[in-house]
Amino acid sequence: MTSLYVHPRLGEVTLSQTVRARRISISVRATGAVRLSFPCGVPQKRALDFLEQKAEWIGAARERLARKRASLPSQLPPEERKARIEELRRAAKADLPGRIGRLSEATGLKYEKLSIRASRTKWGSCSGSNHISLSLFLMTLPEHLRDYVIVHELCHTVHHDHSPRFHALVDRLVGGREKALNRELRAFTIR
């Protein structure tokens, strides 16, 4: 169930109460939009109390994202943007299937199908039926971060969550560098 809540200081916040949520969490989009997700068994008041406790953190995250947006180059004209996306799509189709194949073989983690999309919200995802979707914008990342994202998604074929067991598997497969690689990846934005 999704609804809109107007916070006195933060403005509009999307409330999302779902069976998929394991805990109360807050996400702040690049646009500054805030989403509060919480499990069905958690009362809305408790989730809103959590939001209140994190109001300063949300403000700081919004400022950081605004600075990041300000430092980005201005938008390309539509024709150039379309040409750039097609160039990235060709590069992704040439690189990503072989890369995921090699990493799947090296790790022993099997996936059902690979899709390459122009996703701007996430680098990759893995469905419950182990279909992996990768963003063509991975081609803007250094190769070692492309590999990290793919290993992350392959680990979802074993653990379809972000549990400690999932992170332990990722960490083991990236040589104990999961936190460092994740930090490095967060410095990049999909554009």
UniProtKB/TrEMBL annotation:
Entries under InterPro entries matching the protein: UTP_pyrophosphatase-like (IPR053136), YgjP-like_metallopeptidase (IPR002725)
Domain YgjP-like metallopeptidase, by residue range, is: 71-179
The family database entries (CDD domains) matched by this protein are listed as:
M48_yhfN_like (cd07344)
Provide an example Pfam family for this protein. Answer: YgjP-like
Entry keywords, A to Z: Hydrolase
Superkingdom, natural source: Bacteria
TM region positions: none
Coiled-coil intervals in this record? none
The molecular function terms of the Gene Ontology recorded here are: hydrolase activity
This one is known as Predicted metal-dependent hydrolase
Species in which this protein is naturally found:
Alistipes shahii WAL 8301
